[in-house]
Design a protein that fits this description.
By secondary structure, the chain is an alpha+beta fold. It contains four helices and three strands; from the N terminus they run H-E-E-E-H-H-H. A hairpin with a 2-residue loop joins strand 2 and strand 3. The C terminus is likely disordered.
């Protein structure tokens, strides 16, 4: 079952669109993993409603789930982050969108603009949904909202 991060709003089923990405599920998964490897992330978890293989990765051949959303949890420079996408009506396209986002972040780093951890500063870094509840979770939510307010107040 998918663990959707609370800080990301959901796209309603009627608002989801067909993407123009021309990749298979396997290629989208592989390219996302490759980009994350090049970013040097650790503790990677890809959360979706796709059954998992023995190695913990989603199967490439699967029935399309009702919810195509994808959340990717990882650590970067010792801090936990999550990237999530459900704009597209297929899981493979949401995987591809996240992979392209990471590719763009790495490009900004190569071109000397900003480190990826700085780009991720405003992204929810709280634990996955399965750990919701308790004081730590409430603290994470407040900290995230404070960071978002700091960004919008300037």
């Amino acid at each position: 079952m998918q663990a959707w991060p609370m800080a990301y709003s959901r796209t309603s089923a009627v608002e989801r669109q067909r993407a123009k990405f021309e990749v298979t599920f396997g290629v989208a998964r592989h390219q996302l993993l490759d980009e994350l490897r090049l970013l040097n992330v650790s503790e990677l978890v890809i959360s979706s409603n796709i059954p998992l293989r023995r190695d913990g990765l989603p199967y490439a051949n699967h029935s399309p789930p009702e919810d195509p959303g994808v959340a990717v949890y990882f650590n970067l420079d010792g801090d936990p982050y999550v990237l999530a996408c459900d704009r597209w009506n297929k899981v493979k396209d949401n995987l591809r969108a996240i992979g392209l986002h990471v590719l763009a972040m790495r490009g900004m780093q190569r071109w000397g603009l900003v480190a990826p951890s700085k780009l991720l500063w405003d992204i929810n870094f709280c634990p996955p949904a399965k750990t919701r509840g308790g004081l730590f979770w409430e603290f994470c939510q407040r900290l995230h909202l404070t960071r978002l307010n700091l960004l919008t107040d300037n």
